[in-house]
Amino acid sequence: MSKLQPPLPKFLRPAPRDPGQEQDDGDGNGAAPSHGDKPGTDKKAEVLGLLDERSGVSPIIRANLYRKVPKGTNWFYTLGSATLFAFVSQAVTGVFLAMYYDPSATRAYESMRFLTNEVFLGEFVRGMHKWGSTVMVILIFLHMARTFFFGAYKYPRELNWVIGVVLLILTLMMSFTGYLLPFDQRSYWATTVGVAINGTGPLVGPYLSDFLRAGPDFGATTLSRFYAIHMLLIPGALAALIGAHLYLVAKHGTTAPPWLKADEPDRLREERA
Length: 273
Fold this sequence. Notes:
This protein is an all-alpha fold.
């Protein structure tokens, strides 16, 4: 096997043949070869091979699972994976909350009260979603800081840095739009102030505020607008950009810590000597 091609995972490798079948595939009388006491031999590999033959995902999986990582990799490199885990947790708990939430001005608060006090594990899941939002924001800031201080935004990873900045903005927008959904006094007036601040921005500020309010003033449609942005628009954009982000990470690889220098080849070291 070529050194450039990573080996097959163990679960895709066929089981070794029985010693008696090394030279003979039958019994010499035209009978089919015997498989001994293993009627299910290689069934898993056959099924996986059938799926891989039709989907072609094996090279992609192998390229990601067996890609090389630079020397000096440490726990700081797990911040991106931790942020991805926080996003998945937010998506799962958000789906559960959406099953009971009513995005109407007259029923939103009551639906959240029912979810918190009456639904089994409702308070727990709502707490996970609430604090998970804060955790995700903290993790993505730490991940961006690690990328900046390690110089991972430089050539050829500039596009991935831009995508990361957009992901940061979308994460903050998702936290902002979700804050209004309980529709209590605190969330209502805090969102009113936040939208007013957006309106002070140059050029697009007033238009952005009108878009978020779904009109010139807060009304019944404002909550539906925030709910649609929070549940459909931003998560869809986040999922697409995360996919592109992970593809570029796999394509370009990760950078070594800035305090490490590349090992000099022996031949080059001898020529300099």
